[in-house]
Amino acid sequence: MDLLRDNELIYGRLLPVDEPHLIGRYNKALTAFGLPATKLKSFEIDRTGFSPEIAEELGDYQYLDPNEVNRRFIILTPSQIDLPVVHTAFSNTSQLLFEFMSKNQRAIDALTIKDVIYGEIEDSVSKVEDIEDLLSINQVEFRVLSAEDVLGKAAELGKLVDKLKQEPEAWRDDAMLQRMVELAKVCGDIRENALVPDQVIFRHNAFWTSHFGGLYVFVDPDVTTVISDPSAPGFRRSRPWQVSYLSIKDADKVFKFLASTGRLDLPRASWIESSGYLEHRAEMAVRALIREAEPKRDIGKVDKVWLQTWIHSHADAINRDGTFPFLNAAKREIAQLGQLRLEEVFPLHRFLVVRAKTDHPDAWLTNRLISEFVPSDFVSRYVFNKQGFYKDYEELNETWRSNVVDTLKTTYLKDKAAFRAQLYGLTD
């Protein structure tokens, strides 16, 4: 993983924490969670406050995610809202925290001037033992605390202010007035500073989770759909009258679900020809075949002419695999007809020529699911399915790890937004 870290392909764009007062605040949050304080003089954090350096120091990458549910968070600064989330068991953790920080921006701005905010994203279960536990999570509540109890003191001051306004003789209570002065020194003027978060409850909609080897939940008006390995506990047993269960091994049914629910951009000339999508898939497929045939081959500096020569000289392997010929045939058919007829296409091949519908709220999750069926496209895996990418990366030899890193640096990392817009039609 050192090569990935050196090239910011893992734990990239994190926030350095090296000021003593911020480290002190972080330690107060760790202590409140029952964890030992860090001895590090500097470390980096993501949006949730997770630090890979502290995880290594503690020997526990789940230190903010015990049982992989009820995720903990530590907020040192409002600027964390712009950071990625690099370690999570739920794909929507990042979005939930973004919504919390956006809705409560004034309170977070004011609180983090003097204090650290920490707590848990609480849901209805404390441990996930089967699919029903996951399906029971309809909403989450942010339980918010602060190390110096600024939140509690602000609430106390608010009550005293109300008492002063409502009880005519309250102003004669010297002890109460003195307490208000003491609290105001900590909280400031609570009429101007919103110190208590206004919105702490948020919906928990479609998501992927690492539980049971990886499981997807999609929510539609009339039905919830679970896509996972059939061996997951509770598969087809939890609420069968409300939940549709699809095996992630059944490419045909998964594709039909995504298409019938309007989550796919089907292969049409309107986007295929301008995006370079099929060309990208074809190159990824050829690279996978080269790795299989020549595991020690360094293709970091080869050009398209070399690739074309390799394809011609390995025609038998190319045809046996079938991916490259299919993509060429699909390209020709789309150029002639404006679209591709999918009814006779092999189920796994269908995923090669589709992407998530760009304006659907589940676009990122859908692209992640598509990547499960196209493992050869390590670029798409990295963009949408980092857990899957890292697992694949661990199985590569050093030569191919370098090839993968070089490819990502010259494609996706060069301009992430432009790359996503060009290939996947995504603008955010």
What does this structure look like?
- The protein is an alpha+beta fold.
- The protein folds into 3 domains: 157 residues, no CATH class; 44 residues, no CATH class; 163 residues, no CATH class.
- It contains 20 helices and 12 strands.
- A 4-stranded antiparallel sheet has the order 3-4-5-6. It has a 4-stranded mixed sheet with strand order 7-8-9-10, covered by helices on one side.
- α7 crosses α8, α16 runs antiparallel to α17 and α17 packs across α18.
- The longest helix has 17 residues.
- The mean pLDDT is 91.
- Pfam families: DUF6638.
- InterPro entries: DUF6638 (IPR046578).
What are the key terms here?
alpha+beta; four-stranded mixed beta sheet; 12 strands; 47% helix; elongated
Number of domains: 3
Low-confidence stretches: none
Percentage of residues in helical conformation: 40-55%
Q: Strand tally, please?
A: 12
Largest sheet features: 4 strands, antiparallel
What is the CA–CA distance across the termini? 28 Å
- Strands of the widest sheet, in order across it, are 3-4-5-6
Strand content: 5-15%
User: Average pLDDT, to the nearest integer?
Assistant: 91
Q: Output the structural class.
A: alpha+beta
List the total number of helices. 20
Radius of gyration: 26 Å
Shape label: elongated
InterPro entries: DUF6638 (IPR046578)
Pfam families: DUF6638 (PF20343)
